Amino acid sequence: MASTPDYLNPELPVRERVKDLLSRMTLEEKISQTRNACPAIPRLGMPAYDYWSEALHGVARNGRATVFPQAIGMAATWDRDLIHRVASAIADEGRAKYHEALRKNGETQIYQGLTFWSPNVNIFRDPRWGRGQETWGEDPYLTGEMGSAFVKGLQGDHPRYMKAAACAKHYAVHSGPEKLRHVFDAVVSKRDLYATYLPAFKKLVQEARVEAVMGAYNRVYGEPANASQLLLGDILRGEWGFEGHVVSDCGALTDFHAHHKVTKDGVESAALALKRGCDIGCDCVLADFLPEAVERGLVTEDDIDRALERTLATRFKLGMFDPPEMVPFASTPMSVVGCAAHRELAYQAAVESVVLLKNKNNILPLTEKVRTMLVVGPNAGQTNVLLGNYYGLSNTMTTFLEGLVGRLPEGIRLEFMPGSLLAHPKRIEKDWSVYTAGHMDVTIAFMGLSPLLEGEEGESILSDNGDRTELRLPENQISYLRLLAASGGRIVLVLSGGSPVALGGLEEIVDAIVYVWYPGQEGGRAVADVLFGDHSPSGKLPLTFPQSLDQLPPFEDYNMQGRTYRYMTAEPLFPFGFGLSYTTFAYSDLRLENPALKPGENLSASVKVTNTGPREGGEVVQAYLTDLEASVPVPLSSLVAFERVSLKPGESKTVQFSIPAEAMMVFGEDGRQAFEPGEFRLTVGGCSPSPRGLALGAPQPVSAVFKVA
Fold it and tell me: Where in the chain is the domain with CATH 2.60.40.10?
């Protein structure tokens, strides 16, 4: 009787099992496993497997799943624990669907696996980028914190098996324009590279232990990101000690010869990618051209083995070579998919993501004084504004109109008229809604953006290759809102979108502004409940809303000067970290444990936060650091800590912070960090430090100066 081969022995270490499996594979079989869609090898009991699966804000492109708010909306919650729970729920649903597909079909297809190509931790440096909605905003620290919570939730904490495998993308220096993504060379200062573009990836690798990293389409300093000695060799595997696998973005290896022109043909592209550390191609380049690359002597079988040791290890960690009864997640029932608990989690995430930007005369929340209500706008009854991009589908999606009608107290008269198209060169005249608005107690206008206007190259059919050419609302929406305001109606403007909107003066003529992102399947219910005051809004902007395009550098410029709250000197429309509540908060008693630090010492601080208003509410306490005596260019201020608290009326809490010593270091021209003696200011409040935030109603922050000796 034949003994069980070592690769099927669950008691052996993964590394030994992978090496044993490789020793049994032919060169041809090995090469077949270097693409995302790996064919079966029946003689070894290896089923076909496709590494390409998506889970940006729920299991995507694979039928039914719970649809959570789009990533940028989840970023607005500033709630690490919530994001961890969301990602854990996503992994549960992915597990249930994967094993069900295996049971029913004997194999899985694309998008049915457990290797999820999420999260996207690119820095949303320019609001025109259509894929910015996939990110966690413009700040490296917030992105790293939220992205890490997502990775940890997705991968789980089982000592032997991963629940699912996460992937940090797109590494690196990647954020549009979409139409240039296959050809451009991102040339930035090493200071910007290390201070802005790399910290989130570093945190996901070193602290969250992310299993995979996806290379970007573009070049960085002339090297394709998927074959960059600097990015993959020196930094990722060298400085950071990454041990997982690297996957190319889809079609990126073809770009080497077709667009970047750094290689002559597919054979050279395959060889260059493999040698530089790209382990699997989301295309056919490696699988199709590695045989000839071996023949030409450009790569060896050892190079292929090295790549497969990493990619196959992921499948072993997921339990794909072990008996199902040994893998605790293999018994995850299909009943978890779209279950009540996950719907409630999606609802909570949507509620916490809502950002209140204006509330003149406390028109919100809607009270019993409101007897008549008009609902207008192109986004009121649309499901696509719940979804964003990279989405799954649910049979329980609630549009804004449905949510509002479902929450409406009996006795309030409500009418609905679309009033405006999403985007149209001319506004249709003779619209009864304009007349009606002037005779209603309040008009709720569901306007803004849509996935038709922003997204990925080839997906958003009303966009410029996915990107936006303007920050303003479409002209027809602007003219319609002006007509509504001129009618004398009181307007609550509810904006959907995945990126900043410039209002061009509209902010002055509406009574309230609420930004709700693409809030997922429970978005309609969540937004209605916030409008009626069942929950006080507590979301905070994870990015700056500029006044106009005039405040931004050219889209193609990847240098950070003038971008984001960290380097932008112009006064924004709405600042990073801003968000109002139905109650008010006060900050006091900022205390530093030691105002004179030695280099390498952490800063311990505490601050008192009090709910000074009439309602219970959530507040995100934000700590920002400013280097007052730096000898090199540094950010105007940088987020270094945050904590979400919930306070009853009159209640106070003392929030403790520990600011790591690394936050006090400066980046030199070579990108290396160093300590400098000097003074620093710590500012703690409910918004990034700015006169604009205070003018809009943010609480007065508190600050203290300390020294690094």
Answer: 585-708
Q: How far apart are CA 130 and CA 122, in angstroms?
A: 12
Tell me how far CA of residue 204 lies from CA of 75, 148, 151, 201, in angstroms: 16, 5, 7, 5
Domain 585-708: homologous superfamily in CATH: Immunoglobulins (2.60.40.10)
CB burial of 246-257 (b: ≥16 within 10 Å; e: otherwise) equals: bbbbebbbbbbb
**In the structure, what pLDDT confidence band is assigned to residue 427 with cuts at 50, 70 and 90?**
low
Do residues 215 and 168 lie in contact, with contact meaning Cβ atoms separated by under 8 Å? no
Token pair for 465 = 């290759």
CATH topology of domain 344-567: Rossmann fold (3.40.50)
By annotation, the residues acting in catalysis are 249, 454
Q: 159: Cβ–Cβ under 8 A, 6 or more apart, which residues?
A: none
Residue with tokens 């992915």: 94
CA torsion through residues 157, 158, 164, 169, sign: positive
pLDDT in tens, 525-545: 999 999 999 999 999 999 999
Handedness of CA 296, 299, 300, 304 (dihedral sign): negative
Please state, as a whole number, how many other Cβ atoms lie within 10 Å of the Cβ of residue 593: 14
Between the alpha carbon of residue 536 and those of residues 79, 376, 443, 532, the distances in Å are: 15, 23, 20, 9
Residue 241, CA atoms < 13 Å, CB-side half-sphere: 5
| 596-597, strands of its sheet edge to edge | 596-597, 702-708, 678-685, 617-627, 638-647
At 425, is the pLDDT very low, low, confident or very high (cuts 50, 70, 90)? confident
Phi, psi for 554 (deg, rounded to 5) = -55, 145
User: Position of tokens 């949510």?
Assistant: 403
Find how far residue 667's CA is from the centre of its chain: 25
**pLDDT tens digits, one per residue of 463-492:** 999 999 999 999 999 999 999 999 999 999
Report the chain's C-alpha Rg in angstroms.
26
What average pLDDT does this structure show over 238-255?
98
Alpha helices in 279-356 (DSSP H): 285-296, 301-317, 340-353
- Provide the CATH number for the domain formed by 1-8+15-37+177-314 in this structure: 3.20.20.300
- CATH code 3.20.20.300 region(s) in the chain: 1-8+15-37+177-314
- Share of residues in the chain with pLDDT > 90 (%): 97
